[in-house]
Amino acid sequence: MPDDIAKAYFEIQQLREEIRRTELALRISFARPPNRPCYTGLMNARSSQATNPQMPLLKRGGN
Prior knowledge:
Blueprint: H1 2-30, H2 57-60
């Protein structure tokens, strides 16, 4: 019986280490460089694509 407990404990420790490595890899895969915006596919009202910077301010709001 003590051998089974020791073996189970060792297997649990191995699984925990594997989970830690997997979680770290997942966090790294979703990491983004600092000072870089997170793009979700949506544009906000201030993005350069939402308005034409060449158009005067008074004409932008009239759409």
